[in-house]
Structures are given as structure tokens and as C-alpha cells.
Amino acid sequence: MCRTVILLLAAAVVAPAQAPDRALSGFRGESLAREQKLESGMDGLFSGQNQQEWMKRMTSLPHHVGSPGSRAVAEFIAAQFRSWGYETSIETFYPLFPTPRVRLVEMTAPEKFTARLEEPPVEGDATSSIRQNNLPVYNAYSTDGDVSGELVYVNYGVPDDYKRLKEMGVDVKGKIVIARYGGSWRGIKPKVAAEHGALGCIIYSDPADDGYYQGDVYPKGGYRPPNGAQRGSVMDMPVYPGDPLTPGVGATDPKRPPDPKQAPTVTKIPVLPISYADATPLLQALGGRVAPEPWRGALPFTYHIGPGPSKVHVKLEFDWKLAPAHNVVARMTGSERPDQWVLRGNHHDGWNFGANDPISGMVAVMEEARVLGELAKRGWRPKRTVIFLAWDGEEPALLGSTEWAEQHAAELQKHAVAYINSDSTSRGFLQAAGTATLERFVTQAGRDVTDPETRASALDRYKARRKVRGQEEDLRLAALGSGSDYTVFLHHLGIPSLNIGFGGEGFYGVYHSDYDSYDHFVRFVDPDFQYTVTTARLGARMVLRLANADALPLQMAPVAKEVNQWTKEVVELADRMRKDTQKENELIRTGALKLAADPRLTYVAPDPEGEVPFLNFAPLQNAAARLERAAALVDKVDPVKLPAGKAQAFEEALRAAEQKLLRAEGLPRRPWFKHVLHAPGFYTGYGVKTLPGVREAIEQRDWKEAEEQIVKAGETISGYAEWLEKAAASSQAGL
User: Fold this and answer.
1) Can you tell me whether residue 568 is helix, strand or coil?
2) In the structure, what pLDDT confidence band is assigned to residue 595 with cuts at 50, 70 and 90?
């Protein structure tokens, strides 16, 4: 029903989309006409057949970091770039990457059961039977361990779940917890479990979230089968990503000792993922109270919390080695402004075959590079330098991109214009997140790309979906947390970044399993490669426009709008916490909260929490107001009309502006993350926290730190505004 409405709405907006305002930020006059002609001629050059052939080849063998397949894929990609005319090299780094020697999960009471920990071959999936160089089901950067204890079910295993456990009188200290995937990034689950004294952590995929409850399972449908399991990293990446042994420095030495004890981001307790087939006996044997309704999954029995009588033994041993991570770097030097770099990339490594994640995005990036290479053979040259990048080691910890960017940090901060990423793509709707300065730029690119299913523009289909949902229709770039290779560019180096693709209609329930294969992709994700081609058309426009523009298409008003909104949110967060705390403490004091509990359950009322003080948000509010005024001044400047010298100085000021939002000391307890406006949450992982220093201090009820972070964020935003004010004033001086 909803999909039909969306298609009707999309069809209704096709006519207006055929003749909209075709202005392009940063282009005027003859350059605008040349760009439009170039893009129009470019569209017929894209080939889904190329992408299909590349995907089939690159997913024919496991190609995780450190594997022979990874090296072969990197060399194949490099050879293609060279054939298209790019100056191409492979840069290799040597991060720590563990692979398992021993994996054991067994139930020792009330009955015996040993988890299979294996994904069996699936009929019709050609690669699912390959075992050579295949990574088994495991979590990278779990610590070694041999632990036994009663089992406790902790729902998604996020901080709020442990608050609920405490209210129910359940303590996980000395126990082993089992959590279902979802609710947060997987690495948060063992992190929070360890903080509460658990000995070990098991993570399983519940069919309610990731299996038959969502639809038919593979191979009949696209969703996760009973023995499918989700591999993935559990490294504490909210502290810092990349090589655990060399934060802030490129891991170039292959002879360093691979000592995990020197790596603070390795988990404190052993953790292992399992399938819902393996989880069923463990959960079914649990006793104790019945799980609250929101905690119940779709397995065919009553969910209990424990502890026990299920007792579990988990044993893990890893081979800790330095693995070569091969990054492909392909350059087309600019004809007029070669010292300004447009960066476009994605990773090529996968958890074994990785067709959707990441090869769907990688083949889109490759097709963009091929088409731009064809344009160059016909006489076109970009004004700015274009660099295509294919990363290794993204899956375990953003290894390749982080080490490369740390190694080249000074050059990147001096030359980079923007980084554009596409981790994966599939059928459906335009998906874009990133730096607010690029919001109008993304809107215009989406306007000029046709959605292959509806024949409306990708932007109009995006708007139609939001209209159906009752949301603001205009494109708004979501802030970036983490989870892909843009992380180091934005959060560590202050380079404007985007993550783009399509999605929402592909049946993708085999994430990080052996079944993320070519056969699954062509059946259930994007059978005719229409959306990988559309992603390439979108990305190519973005690269071309950044490379060819007379002036960089950056706009500051959306940043000011976001900062104002985020400032209001943290003020409201503190006010809401103050009111909620006062109300809850009064209920505890009078005993009303305890009396309201279900009498069938043993209930422990929470301890009263300290009052929430009134925080002084004035430094942040004043900075937000100043930024709004400064952004308006900058956005009034038309750099195309400035004299050459002033235009160049103004553009350089805007190119470097994002770096003014970094603080040298970084965020509290994680100095690697330096951006004051956004970061992955300390307890969300991939999920973004805006104004993270302020917001997380309030959430953790650290009022002294909250006051300090309000001042620091205000200082940084005010400094950013001052930078913009000076840029605007200098551009107009003497005119």
C-alpha cells in the first residue's frame, strides 16, 4: 500500500522535474553550459554489464584483509584504473588483525549442547561451499578467553537494557550475557557487558530483526537463514578506529610486535556471534522472569531472562598478526588547480564474499572512474585533481582508510576539497548523509539523476517518500557518525565528507555472512544493476562538479541551521532530564514507583538520582547566533564575480573552514575524535551524536564536564564563525 502511494506521488512530480531550475552551485555562463553538456553526454557511457562482470569476479573468492583474495582484488582494481588512464599505485599498511584458532560455545547445563558456528552451503549459491581462506563466524578484536557461567539474556545489550535489568533485580556480574543484534553497533554490547562485570558475551541474530519474521529466508527469499550468522568487528572504535597499535600514525612497519595487550580498543571480555539456530537451545533453557514484551524476539518459545539454569562455556583463542592492507590510489591531475583534491572512494575488502557490502558500492566507484577516463580520452580534463581510492580492511576497523589518511594527514588538510564514499547500494531511494556545507550540492545532484524504477528524479522520489511519511520534504543531510571510510576524513581531519547510495527496497538479510554473495545480489538486491549504475551516475556528477566548478559549491547556511537545532536539542535534553528526575525521585520517595510494579515480579526500585542543575548554555547559544550571521555574510559572496586573487583566497578559506571545527585535544576520553559538531556516540558506535562533548556529558550526568564542554564548543563554533567573517570581509575589501 505505502509503496504504491510512493510510486503514484513520484509519478505526479515527474512533469515538474523535467524543466526545473538547472542552476549549478559554483558554475556560471559558459562553464555552466559546458558542464551540462558534458554530463548529458556522459550518461550514455555507463554500463551495468561492466559492474556485473566486476562484481562476479571480485566476489568469486574470499577477499578479507590479509587474504590472497584481497591482494588479487586490489591488483585487479589497480589494473583497471591504469587502463583508464590514471596514475595508479597500491599503498600497503600493516595493522593488527586477529583470526581465530579456537572457537567454542557450549551449554553445559541443564543439558549438553555445542553450537555449530558454521554456515552450511546453500543450494544455488555458487560460493557458499568455498572454505579455503574463508573467515569463520567470529568477532574481530575480541580478546582471548576461556570463561564459564550462568547465562543472562540482556535484550540488545545497550545501557538502557542494563538499567531495566537492575530494576528487575538481575545482576550480570560473573555471568555470560547473550544479546541480540540491533539497537546499537555490535561492539557496544561487550563493552557495556564488561562494564557491568560480565565474563563473556554472545551475540545472535534474532529472526524478528533479521530472519523469517521479516520475510522468506535465503535461498527462497532474501533474509537470513537459521544458520546464518553476522561476523563483524567489536573493536572499541568510538575511542579510535584503524590499527589498534598506532592511533594517529600510519601503520607502515611490518615488523612491529603484534601485541594485543598494547591495544586499548580490544574488548575486555571474549565475545562471539552465533546464528539463531545455535541460539535457540541456549535461550530456550533459560529460566527466571519472563522477558518484558519489547525484549521478546520471534523464536517459537517464551523468552526468559535468567540467570540460568542455562550454563555456558565460551573459549576463544586468536592468531594475532599484522595483516597487509592494500589501498589502491588512482590520480587524474587537475589542469588549473592541481593542488585541490577531490577524493572519491569505497572499500574493496569484505567478510568473505561481500557482494552487497562493499562490492556494490565499489563497482559504482569503478564505473565512475572508467567513464571519467573515457571523457579524458576525448579531451576533457578536470580543473582540480581527482583521486579515486579503493580501501582495504574497512570491515574490521576502517583500517586502510584510517592508516592512509593518518599517514598523509598534513597533505590532505592542505589540499583536500571533499571525500565522497559509497559503502554499498541497492534498489530504492536516494540515501545521503554528510557535511551540511554540501547540502545544496547533493540536492542539485539528486535533482539531475533519474530514478530507474519511477523515472522521476532521485530527488523527487526522495521527497515523495518523505511526504508520505509526513516529514519535511526538502533534502536534509543526516550527520555522519561512523561505520565507513569517511570517518577519518571528517572526524579526525576536518574534511567535508559524504556517504551516498540508494536503498530501502532490496531484500538484504544476509549482512556480514557467507550468503552476501553474487548469487544473492542478483536475485534479491539489484538484479539488473540499475541502481549500481544510478549510484555511479550520481557519484560521477558529484566528482565532475567538484572538479570542474569555477568556485567550490559550499554553502554555510545549512551548518548554522544545524548548529542552532542541535543547541536547542541539548538545552531541551537537560530540561527534560531535570523534570524527569524530579518526578521519578518523588515517586521513589513516596513509594509510588515501587507500588506500581507488577506484583508477580520481584522489583527493585532504582536509586534516586542527583538533581540536574541549571546549566549555562549562553556560550553555545551566543556562538550559534554568531555563526548564523557569519554564514549569511559568506553565502552572499559570489566568488565567480571576484577578481582572480580574491576569488582564490576566498575559495581557500572556504575549503579549509571545516578544519576550524576541530579541537586539538579532541573529545573527552577519546582525543582522536576532534570535531565538535558530530562524532559516533561513545555508547552507540555507528550512531551519531551531535555536539558530542556537550550531549554525552549531559547524558552521563557529568555536570562539571558539561559546563566545560559548553564553553569549549562555544569557543570553537565562534572561532569558525570568525573565520567565515574574515573570509567575507576580505573578499569585499577594496571593491
Assistant:
1) helix
2) very low
**Alpha-carbon span 2 to 132, nearest angstrom:** 44
| Domain with 616 in it | 557-732
Residues 188 and 297 in one domain: yes
Residue 712 φ then ψ, to 5°: -65, -45
Residues 127 and 59 in one domain: no
DSSP 8-class letter at 181: S
Number of domains making up the chain = 3
Whether residue 265 sits in one domain with residue 174: yes
* Cα–Cα dist 354/498, whole Å: 22
Residues 161 and 33 in one domain: no
Helix (H) or strand (E) holding 689: strand 688-690
How far apart, in whole angstroms, are the C-alpha atoms of residue 122 and residue 104?
24
Claim to verify: residue 501 and residue 630 sit in the same structural domain: no
For the record, the C-alpha cell of 29 comes out as 555562463
Helix (H, G, I), strand (E, B) or coil at 352: coil
Q: Each residue of 198-247: pLDDT tens digit? A: 999 999 999 999 999 999 999 999 999 999 999 999 999 999 999 999 99
Question: Which residues, 6 or more positions from 73, have their beta carbon under 8 angstroms from its beta carbon?
Answer: 58, 63, 348, 349
d(CA 165, CA 545): 53
Extract the C-alpha cell encoding 261: 595487550
CA distance 514 to 12: 41
Domain end among 320, 350, 382: 320
Strand 416-421 versus strand 337-347 pairing type? parallel
Question: At residue 662, what is the residue type?
Answer: L
Last residue of a domain, one of 483, 515, 548: 548
Q: What is the structure's pLDDT at 586? A: 78
